[in-house]
Amino acid sequence: MSRSKDEIAAAIAADIPAGSYVNLGIGQPTLVADHLTPGSGVVLHTENGMLNMGPAAHGDEIDPDLTNAGKIPVTELPGAAYFHHADSFAMMRGGHLDVCVLGAFQVSSGGDLANWHTGEPDAIPAVGGAMDLAIGARRVFVMMTLLARDGTPKLVPECTYPLTGLGCVDRVYTDLATFEVGPTARAAGGVRVLATYGTGVADLRELLAVPLVDATAAPADGG
Amino acid sequence: MSATTFAGDTAYDDALADVADGATVLVGGFGMAGMPVELIEALIRQGAGDLTVVSNNAGNGDTGLAALLAAGRVRKVVCSFPRQKDSWVFDGLYREGRVELEVVPQGTLAERMRAAGAGIGAFFCPTGAGTLLGEGKETREIDGRLHVLEHPIRGDLALVKASVADELGNVVYRRTARNFGPVMATAAETVVVQVDRVVPVGGLDPEAVVTPSIYVDRVVVA
C-alpha cells in the first residue's frame, strides 16, 4: 500500500530530531505540524518573521497582524519571538535553521531542487522564499508524490524544470518510498532507498531512471 | 533630525505631498499584514507616476498596492512573489506588458535593502546561484559554494506601517506585521511610517524599540 499524505507527513515528523528549529513550506509540508508531538520541543519558524509559531487561528483568535508564510492566520506559542525579514532570512542562510520541508516539481539524484517555476512561457514567475530555504536550511526534506499526474517520475537524473537550488535536498519522502539524495549518495553509487511502501526496490528501479542503492535493511538513523 | 508628526484629517496627504514622478518606493507588508494601505491611498491621490515599487508581493485584491497598480502609476515592480490567488490586477497588467517585473528571492530582497541601509556596496549571496535568477550575475565560489553578487536596493521613499511611535520617531511594530518595515526604514531617503498611536517622548520602552528614530522622517497618525 502506498502512503497517504498524512502518513508521509507523520514519517517526516518522526525523522525531525527533538528540539529542532524547523520551517514547513507552504502547502502539503504544513501537514507535518499535525504530527509533531508537544513533547518534541520542535520550534516552528515562519519566514515572515516568527519563531514558535502555533497552529492556525480560528474565530476570535484571528489577528490580521499574525499570519504564516502562506498568509493564513496563525497563533503564537509561549516562547515565541518576532523579528524582521532580513533577520528571518539570515537565520536560514546563516545555518541556524535545522530542517526545512518543501514541496517539489522535481528532485535530481544529486539533490538539485525544482519547485518554483514551471518554465511555461505564460507563467508569471514567483519565487518567494523557496530559494533561500533550499540553500539555507541545514537539512532539506522534500515531500511529494513520486510520480507526476502524467505518470512521469519526479525523482530524476537531472531536473528539466528551472532550478530552485543546486545539491540542496537531503531526503525525499514520497507515497512509494523514502530516498536519500545528494552529492554524497550519488558518489556512493546512487540514490539510497531508505524505506518502501507497497512497491519493492526492484519495481522502483523499473520506474525511475536513477541508480538506486537498496538501504531498506539498514537500521533507521532517526533522521 | 527627529521625525515630523502628521495628524488630523489630511495627515496622509500632507505627509506625501512631495513625491516625484519616477520615484522608487519601498512598500512594507507581507500580504496585507503590515501593508500601509492609507499611505498608498494617499500616494494614489497625490498623483506621482512612473514609479518603481519594491515590495514582497504585487498587490492583493483591489486595495493598497493593487489600487496603485490599477491607477497606472507603476512602471516596474521588484518583488519576490507577485503571483497569488488575489493578484488579478498585477497579473492583468503584466500579461498586457504594461508593467515590468524583477523577481528577487525573498531573503535577497530583504538583504539588498539591508545593504543599502547599512552602506554595503554589494554582497555575495548563495541564494539563486546556478538558477535562472542567478543568470547574468557575477558568480564566485566561496568556501566551496557558489555565490552571486547582489547589489543594494535603495528607495527614494519608504512607506511603512507600524503600531506605535513616539514623537521623536522611535517605532514598535505588532507581531508578523513587522516583516519588511524595519529594513525598509533604513533604506530610503524619506521614510514615512503610519502608526495607530503616537506617544510622548519617553512613552516607549527603549529596550523594545525596533526602528530607532534616526531612520524615521515622518510619522503619520489619523
From TrEMBL, chain A:
The protein's enzyme class: transferase
E.C. no: 2.8.3.6
Source species taxonomy: Bacteria, Bacillati, Actinomycetota, Actinomycetes, Propionibacteriales
Source organism per UniProt: Nocardioides aquaticus
Pfam families attached to this UniProt entry: CoA_trans
Gene Ontology molecular function, alphabetical: 3-oxoadipate CoA-transferase activity
InterPro entries assigned: 3-oxoacid_CoA-transf_B, CoA_trans_fam_I, NagB/RpiA_transferase-like
Segments passing through the bilayer: none
Family per similarity comment: Belongs to the 3-oxoacid CoA-transferase subunit B family.
Protein name per the record: 3-oxoadipate CoA-transferase subunit B
Xref: SUPFAM superfamilies: NagB/RpiA/CoA transferase-like
Keywords: Transferase
UniProtKB/TrEMBL annotation, chain B:
GO MF: 3-oxoadipate CoA-transferase activity
Coiled coil: none
InterPro entries the UniProt entry points to: 3-oxoacid_CoA-transf_A, CoA_trans_fam_I, CoA_transf_BS, NagB/RpiA_transferase-like
Bilayer-spanning residue ranges: none
Enzyme Commission designation: 2.8.3.6
Pfam families (UniProt xref): CoA_trans
Record carries keyword Transferase: yes
Keywords: Transferase
Similarity remark: Belongs to the 3-oxoacid CoA-transferase subunit A family.
Entry protein name: 3-oxoadipate CoA-transferase subunit A
Classification of source organism: Bacteria, Bacillati, Actinomycetota, Actinomycetes, Propionibacteriales
